[in-house]
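Field reference: sequence -> structure
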Amino acid sequence: MEYKKIPFAAGIQVLNRFNASDEAKALINDEMSVTNSIQTLSEHELNFDLIQFLAHALPVRECIWWASLCLHKRHDDWNASQLQCISLAKQWVQAPSEELRRKAELFATRLQLNCGPSWLAQAVFWNGAGSIVTPDLPVVLPDPNLYAKAAAGAVNHAAALPVWDNSALYYQYALDTALKIAQGYNPEE
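Structure field:
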């Protein structure tokens, strides 16, 4: 399968971008393609690793769009501030701006990074387009993979909390949606 939006040929290139579990590291070898790596992680139900893999494989805007769609799947479980985080992330993907990036920082701080939507807002703030310190200080750019860590955290957090019985379906939706985005499609809610 061809993934237009994933700029890596081998799965190990993606796996090396995050702290994978020992089980995932044992399964993914230097010879495996991205497609085979995704399939292997999925077959072994290593959902936490799979979500991190997908987040680190996708480019910034695609990753944040994907995470937004995943979190939107639980829209009935979020309060108004949490829904605003998701809406803001979608707005940023469609029209990235420093104003929206800084607004995302405020939401993440207000929600104290204790829910999926707050981690999504943090992903927007850490997207790499601006400094991660206050504007009056010299520019400090985030680690290039920090947005992906936050996006993966958002998706994985929302899979479990608030507690529900649909984690397996949620993870399948997350995988299917990521693969559509990776192929160049633009799925909607």
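Note: The CA atoms of residues 1 and 35 lie 7 Å apart.
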